[in-house]
């Protein structure tokens, strides 16, 4: 579903600070060190990257949204009365108004921001957990790895390659995604400033050398420790079936390398249903 029924379906931005909202819902945090914690999710639309596997296709490859004033988002969160709020996307940090929203929510809620780690928020932005998911080389879209979301079957095959050639979306984004997916300085600032987790989407053993190199670089440059238990390996997969194929390998890699494994419990529970 492109835009949640729960969000006001305004197609034009209201006066004052506003955000393009794709979904706003209550669920359990499905990933990372707060997995299982009841949380209200605010999902902005729009992203500066294009992972081929993006499970939020309608915020990246085909962004759709309704505009909500920041005050209306705050009211919708207050109505659900959670302890924890998760701001996600798309990439929430590409919108200045996300920082205004966080400032408005900061006194009342524990705030997690799900981010690809390419943008540093203004210094006064309250964030209790920076959930950083740096994007690896295997996230880059190519004709062999076209977008898997909404309508795709998640299996890159000749038909997808042909479709990607015909529709230049995937190849248009190959270079742009590759050029922008990692910003070590931004990652260092984020881990120095906030309680953090580095949550890597893992497609297989070939991802491990890039993960260990990147973690080493960030550790060398940062003035804070990054313990192994804050480096999380998460299996790639938008559906139960896809996760069933990757999770054992990824769990075994976590055990082998001493990093933490995170499940995707919302996928186990509700598969790829919207607003979960
Ligand atoms: C949709 S993203 C939005 C936040 C931000 N743009 C990012 O990528 O971190 C939310 C989380 O889902 C993860 N994710 C997206 N598609 C996935 C997939 N197919 N399998 C596993 N994790 C996925 C991202 O890596 C990120 O941790
Ligand atoms: N339940 C649930 N937990 C999540 N944790 C991070 C999510 C995200 O899309 O950022 C997410 C999500 O989409 N659903
Ligand atoms: S960075 Fe996040 S929202 Fe953007 S395409 Fe990748 S997974 Fe999707
Ligand atoms: Mg999600």
Seen as an oligomer or otherwise, the chain set is single chain
The number of helices is 8
Give the amount of beta strand, in percent.
15-25%
Mean of residue pLDDT? 92
The largest beta-sheet arranges its strands as 3-1-2-4-5-6-7-8-9
Residue ranges: pLDDT <50 for 5 or more in a row?
151-156
Radius of gyration: 18 Å
Structural class: alpha/beta
What is the makeup of the main sheet?
A: 9 strands, mixed
CATH architecture: Alpha-Beta Barrel
Stated plainly, the CATH topology is called TIM Barrel
Number of strands: 9
User: How many structural domains can be distinguished in the coordinates?
Assistant: 1
Order of helices and strands: EEEHEHEEHHHEHEHEH
**Mind telling me the CATH superfamily name?**
Aldolase class I
Cofactor: Mg(2+); S-adenosyl-L-methionine; [4Fe-4S] cluster
Biased composition (Basic and acidic residues): 166-176
Binding site for substrate: 28-30, 43, 88
Function: Catalyzes the complex heterocyclic radical-mediated conversion of 6-carboxy-5,6,7,8-tetrahydropterin (CPH4) to 7-carboxy-7-deazaguanine (CDG), a step common to the biosynthetic pathways of all 7-deazapurine-containing compounds.
